[in-house]
Design goal:
Helix content is 16%, strand content 34%. It is of the alpha+beta class. The chain has three domains: 314 residues, Rossmann fold (3-Layer(aba) Sandwich); 124 residues, Galactose-binding domain-like (Jelly Rolls); 95 residues. Strands 2, 4, 5, 7, 8, 9, 10, 11, 24, 25 and 26 form an eleven-stranded mixed beta sheet that branches. Strands 12-23-14-19-16-17 form a six-stranded antiparallel beta sheet. Strands 13, 15, 18, 20, 21 and 22 form a six-stranded antiparallel beta sheet that branches. Helix 2 crosses helix 9, helix 3 crosses helix 4 and helix 7 packs parallel to helix 8.
């Protein structure tokens, strides 16, 4: 298993920390080595002990980069509480009520994030909401230009107070697993509403893909161009020798809108020349700038003296004594905004420079500064390539999760052709980074009668269906249980249980039908018909209402589709139309809202919408039906 640990501000820490993913109430994956990791003082020795149903212990020396990790022996599923203890000899940290069972990662956008309290299960009652075996760790929304190694958060046990805040899809998935397997089930919920697939992908992967594929390039090239512009030699531009005469001027504190940049994300360099008095020579100084949105790297004469993340965190840095001489110096700031309004957001009095041992005599820094924008892009953080991956997936790579459930795609419906390439690549990359071919089960887009010309939902569904070519994947359908007037349908029970069907059959080897029939091949027959063969998982094709197959169409060489009739022969569908003498293409459920599509199979599970030969090409103009 791969293990990626990238932590910030380690040098400024004292003592040690343990990842909150192994905090109170955590769920550990059964039958897998148990990784325990965190940060600490380089060279310190830590003892790790896991008590409860047997004892496991180990020691580790903190690495020079301030990280540490050990793997304890695997355990079988057990709801007997365990206690994790980590000690450096003077300080001890414990985490209690830890159980062992099945651990799953849930990710995607708003339909995965949608809470139980927002679904049809909101009134399920205290008994349904009370299950000490089901637990969730919600990864807070976060974004970063660099891969991170730590997250914040807490495990929550399913109770009437906590369950309404769980992911509705993930909770129902966990409930069905628990009811069948009778073991604890943990969900790490790392999702963000409105997010695009490229935000959840690795930068190096996207960089390689865009050079080889024009579809990917048109999705991410603007961002990579902006990043290249941002990667200027900030030290030189913020040094005392640089001539900033052509730079613009603004008054700080102030936001980017006041500078004429509007609602843009990107990077801005700021410079201010100040004069240090003779009496301060050789004395350490304290530089305070107030809160900056979102990330700053602050320089003194072109030398970085500190960096901080967080739009509400006041900036305070030390200028080393050996860098303080009488006369002119340049304070420089490289500020990067990833969401919302960028800029300096403190009060005038928050911006000041003074001796570290004397804050009574200070130089005020509020007022005119010089500035230059080095990059800018219009996408919010949740749609910015790589940034959610860096902050919300990379820190989880040490976890031996059983698999992934994923509900996303709405934010990429404007470009299904690119999604067709990006989504399978993301699945394979996550597997490589987590260190095993973990099952990956995803939800196909629900029905929505949106009427927009720039949302290509039939094609996006087809791109999702094509992702099933990646081994170890499964797709849960929900076009039959959605709401044509709401992008957030409230029936998350059906969705979660349909995802669980895949896991129960493929991972846990239960005798259960995983999904409705899937088309696997087709052929054009001599009698003017098209025959489609299905994988029916032991059932037979039929219609939900016993009537004719609805939303079935065929097209000839002209590409114009006409309604078709069908004969159902166990695992085959034979389609024809009086309007098409020689059909060459067939499609089913090709609608924004295909709820009327009525083909089903075993356990009355629906047949996926499809088009054969398969394509995700966007129409030249106009909206889909």
């Amino acid at each position: 298993m791969s293990m990626s640990i990238f932590l910030v501000s380690v040098a400024a820490m004292s003592g040690f920390e343990v990842t909150p993913l192994l905090g109170d109430n955590a769920v550990l994956q059964q039958r897998a080595p148990i990784p325990v990791w965190g940060t600490g003082e380089p060279g310190d020795t830590l003892s790790i002990r896991l008590d409860g149903d047997g004892v496991a212990a180990d020691e580790v020396t903190v690495a020079p980069d301030g990280t540490w990790m050990v793997r304890l022996p695997s355990r079988f599923a057990s709801r007997t509480p365990l206690t994790l203890t980590v000690s450096d000899g003077s300080d001890t940290k414990t985490a209690s009520n830890i159980v062992v069972g099945e651990l799953w990662l849930a990710s995607g956008q708003s339909n995965m994030e949608w809470r139980v309290s927002q679904t049809d299960d909101r009134d399920a009652g205290d008994e349904a909401f009370s299950n000490a075996d089901i637990r969730e760790f919600k990864v807070p929304h976060a974004h970063d230009e660099q891969r991170q190694g730590s997250v914040v958060g807490q495990w929550k046990v399913s109770t009437p107070q906590q369950t309404p805040h769980f992911s509705g899809v993930a909770w129902n998935f966990a409930c069905m697993l628990h009811d069948t397997l009778d073991v604890p089930v943990g969900i790490v919920n790392s999702s963000w509403g409105g997010s695009s697939v490229e935000a959840w992908m690795d930068r190096d992967l996207l960089d390689v893909m865009r050079q080889d594929d024009s579809l990917v390039a048109r999705t991410v090239d603007d961002w990579f161009t902006a990043q290249a512009k941002a990667e200027v030699d900030a030290a030189a531009l913020l040094g005392p020798e640089h001539d900033d005469a052509v730079w613009s001027e603004t008054v700080l504190p102030g936001d980017w809108a006041s500078m004429g940049l509007g609602d843009v994300d990107g990077t801005v360099l700021y410079r201010l020349s100040i004069w240090v008095p003779e009496s301060w020579s050789g004395q350490a100084l304290t530089l305070q700038l107030g809160p900056i949105d979102d990330l700053d790297e602050t320089f003194w004469d072109g030398v970085e003296i500190g960096r901080t993340r967080g739009h509400t965190t006041p900036r305070s840095y030390t200028v080393p004594a050996d860098m303080v001489t009488p006369g002119r110096h340049v304070i420089g700031v490289r500020a990067t905004d990833m969401a919302g309004a960028g800029g300096f957001f403190g009060k005038r009095g928050d911006m000041r420079l003074h001796r570290a041992d004397d804050d009574a005599h200070k130089i005020g820094l509020a007022g005119p500064w010089r500035w230059m924008q080095t990059s800018g892009w219009a996408k919010p953080a949740r749609n910015t390539p790589t940034v959610l991956n860096n902050a919300m997936i990379a820190p989880l790579e040490g976890l031996p999760v059983a698999g992934v459930i994923w509900y996303q795609g709405e934010s990429n419906a404007h470009d299904p052709e690119a999604y067709d390439v990006l989504f399978p690549a993301m699945i394979l990359d996550w597997r490589a980074r987590f260190g095993h071919d973990m099952p990956f089960y995803f939800v196909q887009l629900a029905n929505l009668d949106h009427g927009r010309h720039d949302w290509h939902w039939p094609q996006l569904r087809e791109a999702q269906r094509r992702a099933l070519d990646v081994d170890g994947t499964g797709m849960a359908l929900c076009f039959d249980v959605g709401d044509p007037h709401d992008i957030h349908p409230t029936d998350k029970r059906t969705v979660g249980r349909r995802l669980a069907r895949h896991a129960l059959r493929d991972v846990y080897h239960r005798d259960i039908v995983p999904q409705g029939p899937l088309p696997v091949s087709f052929g054009v027959l001599d009698n003017g018909t098209i025959a489609v063969k299905f994988e029916t998982y032991g059932g037979s094709l039929k219609t939900r209402d016993g009537g004719p197959v609805a939303l079935l169409e065929v097209a000839g060489a002209d590409g114009v589709f006409h309604p078709a009739t069908a004969r159902l022969l166990d695992d085959r569908l034979v389609a024809s139309s009086a309007a098409v003498e020689t059909p060459v293409r067939v499609r089913y459920g090709w609608r924004q809202d295909p709820a009327a599509a009525n083909l089903i199979g075993a356990d009355d599970l629906p047949v996926t919408p499809f088009i054969l030969p398969s394509t995700v090409d966007r129409p030249a103009e106009g909206a889909e039906p």
